[in-house]
Design a protein that fits this description.
This protein is mainly alpha-helical and 592 residues long. The chain contains 23 helices and seven strands. Helix 5 packs parallel to helix 6, helix 16 packs antiparallel against helix 17 and helix 16 packs antiparallel against helix 18.
């Protein structure tokens, strides 16, 4: 993973020129250093040739390495930033399980998120174009080296209190297996090292607390909280260029550090094969957590947990943080309020991805939701103050992920299942669209046929005005009936009866008077008032235009409100007070 060496910020003096101001050189050529030839001021970690020999012995012959004699620097594994913590262990497990479920393994995830692998020449052109966009960034030197253990590192040398005399170099690992050597991955690397580490370090040299942080009640450089803030911002900057914004790499580093407390080197190397099938990548992950230890020992170095811890703390408090002020120096996310009144904004750099702040805030919200932080930390949503996840004791026993290494056949099967699921989803969507289109077309055709039918009947018979009036009143009701009860689901006899009722205006008049149910697949339930006269239904007179009196009698007979009937207080209503008549019975009554 990408990191910045915090200790190099304190080196001074004897490496720079004293006296006159140094002139800046732009468009510096990119330098490549072979194995063992990297200058000491740029080299990091143990002897690269010895480390490479131990790696080859382990991968080819199974010989365990011995990092305790290889590492010149002794790391403290029990205190400070080297202590292994477990506050976010369950979150890291959840992110890894989600990525494994959606992308099979980390190699597929990197291809999907950061694009295909590119060569060193194309990556150099991308980095150079990124730096030449700003006159200050163009002064940064770029070097490729095989002697560093991380993906990249930003190194600065020169006087501490004279930022204009410092020199900055971005050293990138010269290795084809470097995970960020991709089309979008190299941009993520530039956002991480230049857009975050360099910008914050350069701006910090312009601030009044640069000479004495203690007088402003600021933490020392290199402490745990400061390291988490620095690397958390850099991690979120790396995801800004990613297509899928899962915190996979930080979660993997956090998980490996936790599992190192219960596994030795070989057990841990074999355990993460299900997530990282590449042996070189697994070696790098386990080496970073087992450095300066005997490989048959249980335990690990927890510094790499700061990537996930810092990103989670910033995402949980993203609505309370002023990011423009946070990038004006090497400040922790909870220290901005202490110095916001004395911050010097003139001359400060802004990261290239801050050109559109709305897109950056949207990126933070997307990352927050995609990694299920709201479900894991529900109490942070309504918190008015900046907070951190609760601390878990160091005697916590982590439960490992339950998965076996995936073979090529299993990987191909999962990919085939994923493609088949996508095809089935697309097919289902197409069928749903076709069914909705058919229903709409059918309803439109029924509406048109009803309107044509009304016009024909009105022209044939003399009672056209009365028929048109009845058809107009019941047009919407009949349309709703057909929509609620499709012909395909209706009984055939019921459908035929319904058609005959519609053809005959006398029957249509009876439908208006008796208020029949709108669902024709159910029997018609007449009201109490109509049930008394249902046994002796009246004969409907003809609707001829000459018999105007018959029409008046029909209207009076069918639309006159019946007298109200009374019954005694203790008298129970008869069970046959309501009578159910089906459409067929109604049709037979009308025929008689």
């Amino acid at each position: 993973m990408v990191r910045t060496d915090q200790q190099m910020t304190g080196e001074s003096a004897d490496h720079g020129h004293s006296g006159s101001r140094r002139t800046r050189q732009r468009n510096v050529d990119i330098v490549t250093y072979k194995l063992g030839n990297t200058p000491k001021k740029l080299a990091r970690g143990p002897d690269s040739s010895e480390l490479l020999a131990q790696k080859e012995n382990f991968l080819n012959h199974g010989v365990l390495p011995n990092f305790s004699q290889l590492e010149k620097k002794k790391y403290n594994h029990t205190k400070g930033k080297g202590e292994v913590r477990f506050e976010l262990f369950n979150l890291a497990r959840r992110i890894l399980e989600t990525v494994r479920e959606n992308f099979v393994n980390g190699e597929v995830f990197m291809n999907e998120s950061y694009g295909p692998i590119i060569d060193k020449a194309q990556a150099s052109r991308t980095i150079r174009g990124y730096l030449d966009a700003d006159p200050i960034l163009s002064t940064i030197k770029v070097a490729w080296s095989q002697d560093i253990t991380s993906s990249a590192v930003m190194i600065t040398r020169g006087p501490v209190y004279q930022p204009e005399k410092r020199t900055y170099t971005m050293v990138i690992k010269d290795d084809p297996t470097m995970p960020y050597l991709r089309t979008e991955g190299i941009m993520a690397l530039a956002h991480h090292e230049v857009g975050t580490h360099f910008v914050r370090f350069y701006n910090d040299g312009l601030q009044p607390w640069n000479a004495n942080r203690k007088s402003y009640k600021l933490r020392k450089l290199g402490n745990v909280t400061g390291l988490q803030s620095e690397e958390g911002l850099a991690t979120l900057a790396s995801l800004f260029a990613a297509k899928h914004k899962y915190l996979y790499k930080p979660a993997l580093l956090y998980y490996v550090a936790c599992m190192s407390s219960v596994m030795d080197f070989r057990e841990l190397y074999d355990h993460i094969q299900g997530l990282e099938p590449d042996p070189d990548m697994r070696w790098r992950l386990v080496y970073r957590v087992k450095r300066s230890l005997d490989c048959d020992q249980v335990g690990g170095y927890g510094k790499d947990q700061c990537y996930l811890a810092g990103a989670v703390k910033i995402l949980l408090n993203r609505k309370l943080i002023n990011f423009n002020l946070l990038f004006t120096g090497k400040l922790c996310y909870d220290e901005v309020d202490k110095v916001k009144r004395i911050i010097r904004k003139d001359g400060c750099l802004k990261p290239p991805y801050f050109s559109d702040m709305s897109s950056y805030y949207k990126h933070l919200d997307t990352t927050f939701q995609l990694n299920s932080l709201a479900e894991c930390f529900p109490g942070f949503l309504q918190c008015p103050n900046i907070r951190c996840p609760a601390v878990i004791s160091s005697d916590y026993n982590p439960e490992p992920l339950e998965f076996l290494p995936l073979s090529k056949e299993r990987r191909d099967k999962l990919n085939a299942d994923h493609l088949e699921a996508e095809k089935s989803k697309q097919l289902h969507a197409r069928q749903t669209e076709k069914s909705t289109d058919n229903v709409e077309n059918k309803v439109n055709s029924e509406q048109k046929s009803l309107s044509v039918l009304g016009s024909k009947e009105g022209s044939k018979k003399d009672g056209s005005s009365y028929k048109a009036k009845a058809n107009c009143e019941f047009k919407n009701e009949i349309y709703n009936i057909g929509e609620a009860t499709p012909t395909s689901t209706m009984n055939q006899n019921t459908a035929m009866a319904f058609k005959e009722l519609l053809h005959d205006p006398q029957n249509l008049t009876y439908m208006m008077s008796s208020r029949i149910s709108k669902r024709l697949d159910e029997p018609i339930l007449l009201s109490k008032r109509r049930a008394r006269k249902s046994a002796n239904l009246p004969t409907i007179p003809s609707m001829d235009s000459n018999s105007s009196s018959s029409k008046e009698n029909t209207d009076k007979k069918f639309f006159e409100r019946p007298k109200r009937s009374f019954r005694l207080r203790n008298e129970k209503p008869a069970l046959s007070s309501a009578k159910i008549i089906s459409v067929n019975d109604l049709r037979s009554k009308l025929d008689n």
